[in-house]
Amino acid sequence: MDALVIGMGFGGMCMLHMAREAGLSVHAIEAGDDVGGTWYWNRYPGARCDVMSIDYSYSFLDEIQQEWTWSEKFAAQPEIFAYARFVADKLDLRRDTSFLTRARTIAWDDARRLWTIETDTGDYYEATYCIMATGPLSIPKGIDIPGRETFTGDIYLSGRWPQHPVDFSGKRVGIIGTGSTGIQAVPVVAEQAAHLHVFQRTPSFTIPMRNHPLTAEYMAQIKAHYPRLRTIARSTHTGGVRPVSTRPMFSVSKEEALRLLEEGWREGGQAIFGLFSDLLYHEETNAVVAEFVRGKIREVVNDPATAEVLTPRGYPIFTRRPCLDSGYYETFNRDNVTLVDCLNEPIEAITPAGIRTSKREIPLDIIIGATGYDGLTGAMMAVDIKGRGGRSLREKWAGGAHSYLGLMMEGFPNLFMIAGANGPSALANFVILNEENARWIVRCIADLRKHGHAAIEPMPEAEDRYMALLSEIAGRSLIPKAKSWYVGANIPGKAHFFPIFAGGFSRYIEMCNAAAANGYADFVFEDAPAPEPAPAD
């Protein structure tokens, strides 16, 4: 076939549709039994998107925008999964998708100039173009604690939550991890469980989501103005329409800054993130915002000792994944919730009866692992990918993800990535980023075919130049200062490196479009081999 798409989350879905519309013979494979990607796998209690629904949705077909109506400002997993299934039905995507199928090996055939893909089902594919739509958060980290196999209760992983309901009523539950997943799950589980122990190592900054239903009148206005809203979104730093100020904190008085912070806290959601343009670039601004949020934790949590353990210190605010919550800090005022400070009381083992720390054994019926992912690179590194001359991707990325625009890599011809690790990735609106990457890939393939080229890959010097720019931009911000999954700090042995383009969504899209518009000057091509002459009569 012309192209094989690997992964049918939001990136793979729009890629499959756009490739078909461009006239390519294309197929997709997906590990789950349905579309949805992240929103297929993450069914844990409280799972919800922290990007506004009107942003976290496709823009490439107005018919979809007009027919689907979001019910909340921040949609929950069931609604997002239903949306993905609605789109798949609308575009008839399943007819060209093989579900319950994982790629095991992907290898470039130098002589034939195509990719060969073997799967865990025994299927074998050959494709001129291989498109990795595997997503940045696809491989759960798991619970790497001795004794897990001895536990006599139930263990659940947030990123591989079962499709059947899980009843916590009357149960003693432990949640390990307090990143965005744990922060979403804790309030919901606490309402049902007889008792909940929350095992926290590094506290996270979280802001009240203040979610609310969207009225029919509001959605009618949104639908009427979707084209302009999408244009605005593509011109922003994040790829969304949430307000972002160009005002640095030093341009206002301390009293005015405090008033703005209070206003942002009351509004909730992502309002505080966009108040000051220098939040992630100026240490003093960041420290003021961080101390403001620490004060709110002390206001909300009744017990001073618990509030202190929940209070993040030692890294700049919002340099780890920014979190939005629905009553997270309030949950620790409940009688049936206990916080375990794993910095001072580390977990030693999982036992048949529960979890043993350095100070005690805590009996549990259910353990939930909200332990995060092998982010950004994990899904691609999980597949044995070999490029030109048998060169391994694992070898190329041993020191961290390295590509050109997060779209292609030197040494791996015709291998495209959607929402790749070196694009804006987790700093941008994934759905619109997926669309823009898919459009670029379709354009690139059309240009190749138009000019008779068989293969394309970036020049090594272009890739190095882009990665140097990426590092330079990251070095101007405070983001790399935190030990987070952004830099691989949550995975033992993984290279510590900030691989994300932090220069903004709009600037990134400009760079991608320019790379194509200038005739792919940063790429090298291979032409199709000339046909052998016909034998003489």
Textual characterization of the structure:
Helix 1 packs parallel to helix 14 (430-450) and helix 14 runs parallel beside helix 16. The two termini are 34 Å apart. With 537 residues, the chain is α/β, with parallel strands linked by helices. It is built from 16 helices and 21 strands.
**How would a textbook summarize the main sheet?**
5 strands, parallel
Shape: globular
Q: Cα distance, first to last residue?
A: 34 Å
Weakly predicted, low-confidence segments:
none
Q: On the 0-100 scale, what is the average pLDDT?
A: 95
Work out the radius of gyration: 24 Å
Strand order of the main beta sheet, please?
3-2-1-7-19
Q: Give the helix/strand class.
A: alpha/beta
Helix content: 25-40%
β-strand number: 21
Beta-strand content bin: 15-25%
**What is the number of helical segments per DSSP (H or I, 4+ residues)?**
16
Detail the topology: elements first, then pairings.
Elements: E1 3-6, H1 10-21, E2 26-29, H2 38-41, H3 62-67, H4 77-91, E3 97-98, E4 103-109, E5 114-119, E6 124-127, E7 129-132, E8 154-157, E9 172-176, H5 180-192, E10 195-200, E11 206-208, H6 216-224, H7 226-234, H8 254-267, H9 283-300, H10 304-310, E12 323-325, H11 328-331, E13 337-341, E14 347-350, E15 354-357, E16 361-363, E17 366-369, H12 378-381, E18 384-386, H13 393-396, E19 415-417, H14 430-450, E20 453-458, H15 460-476, H16 505-517, E21 523-527
Parallel strand pairs: 1-2, 1-7, 2-3, 4-18, 7-19, 8-17, 9-10, 9-17, 10-13, 11-12
Antiparallel strand pairs: 4-5, 5-6, 14-15, 15-16, 20-21
